[in-house]
Amino acid sequence: MDAITFKPIYMERVWGGRELERIYGRDLPNATSPFGESWEVVDRPEAQSMVIEGPLAGCSLHELWTTRRGEIFGEEFPDFPRFPILIKVLDARDDLSIQVHPPADLAASLGGEPKTEMWYIADCDAGAKLYVGLKNGVTRADFEAAISAGTVAECVHAITPQTGDSIFIASGRLHAIGAGFLIHEIQQNSDTTYRVFDWNRCGLDGKPRELHVAESLASIDFDDFEPTMDVAEGECLAKCAYFKTDQKALKSGDSIQNPDDGQFSILTVVSGKLADAGGRSFGKGAFVMLPRGSAGLVATEDSVLLQITLPR
Questions:
Q1: For the segment 43-94, what is each residue's pLDDT rounded down to a tens digit?
Q2: Rounded distance, CA 29 to CA 31, Å?
Q3: Hey, what domains does the chain have and what are their CATH numbers?
């Protein structure tokens, strides 16, 4: 079966920009709005990836997952009602809110879904910062006092990463993406975010955005102090119960296939260019699903890509 591509779903965000247009050459929905998110692979009631070309054109990801799972994705996966991975590109021209996702053991009681994710830094401005975990010694009491004083940012640990770095964000880890990043986010299929601090600003509608202080305090891991960016184990950037992400470096002429014949994978092209046997080309910023049994793709120039799979 041929490689599958989906139509991106663009989301306006108060902290977004136009880097998807500038860096990836995307045609954004309009010429002026700040687009902070592009949902590349998603199967949710409110957002659905649609195949854009080939014999499956017009099919939804949900349709593929529920009616052709064995053929396209492989056997032996848990019987999730929806495709369990969500992949986004985030364009942060301003700081995102300081936030947390609820842990699995608390999510249902808080009315949300757990969300473990990872970030891959596809591009960043010099000196751009991620905010992850707490500064050493910050207690829950200190944090609650900072919420009242509007000084939460002073409690959060800042990291200055480089392009090509990555970090794992487990449910419960306090975090925020600072201004100046283009990030590939691989995550559980969830859309629950609890904002605890939003830099005292207003949203696109001119009103302060909703905060979720009680839910955040229940979810935050208050023993998570000053984490660092992750160190890859060989090609593996992240592996958990929800996804596995490898980074692959290909020379021109090298091919990329699925990890084994009985499984699918999703490729994100960080740099370079790939092609399939039919002559379709996939350049920087492309997201491609290789179905089970696919012949794979060939690098037509030196390339770096992420390969994402679902653990079995």
A1: 999 999 999 998 999 999 999 999 999 999 987 777 889 999 999 999 999 9
A2: 7
A3: 9-219 (2.60.120.10), 236-309 (2.60.120.10)
As annotated, the active-site residues are 195
Q: Distance (Å, rounded) from C-alpha 38 to C-alpha 175?
A: 20
Contact of 39 with 47, CB cutoff 8 Å? yes
Residues whose CB is less than 8 angstroms from the CB of residue 282 and which lie 6 or more positions away in sequence, other chains included? 3, 5, 267, 269, 273, 274, 275, 276, 288, 297
- Burial (CB count within 10 angstroms: exposed 0-12, middle 13-18, buried 19+), residue 54: middle
Closest C-alpha among 261, 260, 309, 311 to residue 289: 309
Confidence of residue 130 (pLDDT cuts 50, 70, 90): very high
How far is 9 from 45, CA to CA, in rounded Å?
13
pLDDT at 74: 87
Helix intervals (H) in 130-288: 140-149, 213-219
Residues shown for the chain = 312
Short-list 155, 110, 113, 108, CA closest to 133: 155
**CA 14 – CA 127 distance, rounded (Å):** 21
Nearby residues of 62 by Cβ (< 8 Å), 6 or more positions away: 43, 48, 82, 83
pLDDT at 261 over 90: no
Q: Which residues contact 279 (CB under 8 A, 6 or more apart)?
A: none
Local structure of residue 155 (DSSP, 8 states): G
